[in-house]
Design brief:
There is one protein chain. The radius of gyration is 17 Å and the shape is flat. The chain has 142 residues and is of the alpha+beta class. The protein has 2 domains: 75 residues, Arc Repressor Mutant, subunit A (Orthogonal Bundle); 64 residues, 2-Layer Sandwich (Dna Ligase, domain 1). The strands form 2 sheets. The chain has a 4-stranded mixed beta sheet, with no helix packed on it.
Length: 142
């Protein structure tokens, strides 16, 4: 479910900086990029803004090996699922219609509406563990 957000100077700056980056980025890296661009904004504000953008469905979030969250603008506003390498952070988008269907049905059975879910899939990519081949490769996002 998307939560509408007020447009603020900070949200506009953070979203603009995210859109200029290729792939996923951390709050710290984003904060540094904003400062280099001459935009004065606190790191705490960057974190709060990214959290709000996540809740509103405007960004995708994955976690790298250390547990740090990485963000990028959601390409078309749709919900996404990723398989993320625990070693290097490479993320591959995966088709997950079964998960979507399961979450919706579970909500109905339990009497819930507006059901949301978070699924985190991790593994080790072939680049980090040469010699093991995955049967099928999803589109890669870095």
């Amino acid at each position: 479910m998307q939560v509408p957000l007020r447009t603020t100077r900070q949200r506009t700056a953070v979203m603009s900086a995210l859109q200029q980056r290729a792939g996923f980025t951390s709050a710290q890296d984003l904060h540094e990029a904003l400062e280099v661009d001459g935009i004065t904004i606190g790191l705490t504000t960057v974190y709060r803004t990214l959290h709000a953008l996540d809740r509103s469905g405007q960004v995708d979030v994955v976690r790298e090996k250390s547990g740090e969250r990485l963000y990028r603008p959601r390409p078309d506003g749709g919900h996404r699922h990723y398989l993320v390498c625990r070693e290097c952070g490479l993320s591959a988008e995966v088709e997950a219609s079964a998960v979507e269907s399961w979450a919706e049905k579970l909500g109905e059975v339990m009497g819930f509406t507006e059901v949301e879910h978070t699924v985190e899939l991790t593994g080790v990519c072939n680049g980090c563990h040469p010699g093991r081949t995955a049967p099928a490769r999803a589109e890669q996002h870095t």
